[in-house]
Amino acid sequence: MPNVMIRKNDAGDLLFYVAKKDMEETISSVEMDTPETWGGDVVLTDGSRWYIDPISPPPTFPTTLRFKRGDE
Amino acid sequence: MATLTREETQNLIQEVLEVYPDKAKKDRAKHLAVNDQSIEQSKKCIISNRKSQPGVMTVRGCAYAGSKGVVWGPIKDMVHISHGPVGCGAYSRAGRRNYYVGHTGVNTFGTMNFTSDFQEKDIVFGGDKKLAKLITEINELFPLVKGISVQSECPIGLIGDDIEAVSKKMGKELDKPIVPVRCEGFRGVSQSLGHHIANDAIRDWVIGNRDGDTSFETTKYDVAVIGDYNIGGDAWASRILLEEMGLRVVAQWSGDGTLSEMELTPKVKLNLIHCYRSMNYISRFMEEKYGVPWMEYNFFGPTKIAESLRKIAAFFDETIQANAEKVIEKYTAEYEAIIAKYRPRLEGKKVMLYVGGLRPRHVIGAYEDLGMEVVGTGYEFAHNDDYDRTIKEMGDATLLYDDVTGYEFEEFVKKVKPDLIGSGIKEKYIFQKMGVPFRQMHSWDYSGPYHGYDGFAIFARDMDMTVNNPCWKSMQAPWQKPAEGEAEAVAASA
Ligand code: SF4
């Protein structure tokens, strides 16, 4: 369950950054992305899947959240 | 020599790897790559930030070097104690040329070396008492010191001293920030982890110090320069451009920087990062906690400077944007004259780089402005994200080498035959003796600044001075030279 910092890049995409692993990846899709909730299954551009319990109201970015690996 | 094709470069890597035993070969192969601009993610072609192989020459430093030497060291109004045996600090003292203004020993301490000089008894009985005494002494001898950082060397972590407790206690007693930094040299695979640890120490002990304090008057044009260590005056050459644009530079991290500048940084509107590797952590933190956005910029060479100035200005209003154009215009005649003078002398020359932090990718633009071509580049301690940023800057089919070993680098140079190498002091004399022009690109070979328009003039002059130095023609003793006529025959057959 790594700590992940989510921030927006210049183009407005969400970036998924794990400091410990030096991994910075763009998020390609989020299961729930509505004005009320944000979260669920998150897929990155490299194909890996992550999961976070949906948060409502949606967090403001940048912020640090704890994710689970999607295949766990 | 013509530029290598993709295949030739690949063969070259294979050839160089031949000498290694199987296991080492397998490992090193992952660190050497042929650049392919179509790749988006560097991890597909190159592995970085791994432990160096035992038995090969690496030029990496330790975590202590990353924290004391790089991040904390240049903060001039603090004393940075090299806590542990005397050597680590003594041998690295003042070698980095991060300039500052002030009276050394009175209100600034940049080039001085403070150490707790551990002896056997300190290792056996612990050095906490000594540290407390040392801190009191420093405060007595140098009353203008604004704060003290304790930079741990290897033994501190091994004997389990509690430097945090001492720092807390002494900090209360002296009413000054005392910052314990757990940057023992054995941590991590290179100095890179030292940067991270240093950033975390700043986060925990410095950044929040003025959180409730509103006495500092901010403007909407406040920026901070992050990750510019003022090597040979770099940060000054950058700062004036920002100021001419109408921005107010509140803090310089950490070249010529002060403790209070760091404390004020969360109050700025934009963090400008030059060295991404060593200071992205703290910038990310400030973005999250204080909502200060950050952006990377590059002040090497007029093309990149103009690009960066425009990008920075885009964060602000039209006045700043118009000013940015004015600044670029103001210097145009100046840098065009420099290019006109040096480009004909340097056109088409090939460069190989092997440096740290940001330079293996940032200086490429400056070389290109002079008509030179970077045919190989590599980092001592980069991570994936650095290579992500490098792939696009480098030409196709050029060489990438991560944590290159002494042997590999020499072999590459023998085959690629660059006209100039830019690397560190440990490589300098080897390559000069091989007859290859060399610039020391960590401390600018006792020159600089290289940032900004002013720096570009010096950069161009230095490169010309090195590449076209007549000494390279005198590498062979006269009696070893082929007789006249013979020389032409050799040249013709080559
Ligand atoms: S590795 Fe340890 S002993 Fe060596 S310079 Fe670094 S801190 Fe000092």
From TrEMBL, chain A:
InterPro entries, A to Z: NifT, NifT/FixU_barrel-like_dom_sf
NCBIfam families found in the cross-reference section: nifT_nitrog
Protein name according to UniProt: Nitrogen fixation protein FixT
Gene Ontology biological-process annotations: nitrogen fixation
SUPFAM superfamilies xref list: NifT/FixU-like
Automatic annotation (TrEMBL), chain B:
Reaction catalysis annotation: N2 + 8 reduced [2Fe-2S]-[ferredoxin] + 16 ATP + 16 H2O = H2 + 8 oxidized [2Fe-2S]-[ferredoxin] + 2 NH4(+) + 16 ADP + 16 phosphate + 6 H(+)
Keyword ATP-binding: yes
Organism encoding this protein: Thiorhodococcus drewsii AZ1
MF annotations from Gene Ontology: ATP binding; iron-sulfur cluster binding; metal ion binding; nitrogenase activity
Task of the protein: This molybdenum-iron protein is part of the nitrogenase complex that catalyzes the key enzymatic reactions in nitrogen fixation.
InterPro entries according to UniProt: Nase/OxRdtase_comp1, Nase_comp1_asu, Nase_comp1_CS, Nase_Mo-Fe_asu
NCBIfam families attached to this UniProt entry: N2-ase-Ialpha, nifD
Database matches in SUPFAM superfamilies: Helical backbone' metal receptor (SSF53807)
Origin: domain of life: Bacteria
Nitrogenase/oxidoreductase component domain sequence ranges: 62-467
Protein's name according to its UniProt entry: Nitrogenase protein alpha chain
Cofactors, names only: [7Fe-Mo-9S-C-homocitryl] cluster; [8Fe-7S] cluster
EC numbers: 1.18.6.1
A cellular component term, taken from the record's GO annotations: molybdenum-iron nitrogenase complex
Subunit structure: Tetramer of two alpha and two beta chains. Forms complex with the iron protein (nitrogenase component 2).
Protein family per UniProt: Belongs to the NifD/NifK/NifE/NifN family.
Keywords: ATP-binding, Iron, Iron-sulfur, Metal-binding, Molybdenum, Nitrogen fixation, Nucleotide-binding, Oxidoreductase
Name of a matching Pfam family: Oxidored_nitro
